[in-house]
Structures are given as structure tokens and as C-alpha cells.
Amino acid sequence: MNGLEVSVHREKDRTVLRVAGELDFSNINQLQQEIERQDTKIVEIDCSALQFMDSSGAGLLLSIARVLNLQNRILEITHIPEHIYHDLDIIGVFRVLESFKASRPTGGN
């Protein structure tokens, strides 16, 4: 079994967490703790090196998106491999993220 590696790159108002390997029930706490350490307006999860994600990983992303939304912060999930994108789309992750985006006050962006 492959593990999960998380690397952190911080810019002004954005933190990019690049996840590599497998995100599943055995290691979602690792990613959750890393996300919770961040205090930037935007937290981006770069999935370009992610090989596998199970439903607990998708659940974590939804949970974190809700928490950040309540804090008037943004979760962005980027560079998603096709097979993982398909699963997240079926689960409805992108609809939830879009609903959060639509509910944010507009202010020049």
C-alpha cells in the first residue's frame, strides 16, 4: 500500500498542499491536520500526484470545504486525475463547492 505525502507551499493569501500517493481512511487525519494548520484565505489541494482516493478522502474534502466556508475562506481542489475527478463528480463534491462559491459575497473577484 502506498502512503500519503503532503508538501506545503505558501504564498500571500494561498497555501498549496500537494498530495501524492493514496488518500484513504488510513491517512485522512494526516491531510486534515495539515489543512487545519493553515491560516490563509485560500487553501488549494493540488491532486496532480494523487493516485487513489476513497470515499473517506472525499468526505474529508467536503467537511473541510464546509469549515473553511464558515470561516469565509476557500478550498480549491486542482489538478485532479481523471479517474478521481469522475468519482468526486458522481459524489457531488463539485456541486457543493460551487454552492459555497455562489453563496460568498461578491467583492471584485
TrEMBL record:
PROSITE patterns: STAS (PS50801). It comes from the Bacteria. Gene3D superfamilies: STAS domain (3.30.750.24). Residues 4-109 form the STAS domain. Pfam families: STAS (PF01740). This is STAS domain-containing protein.
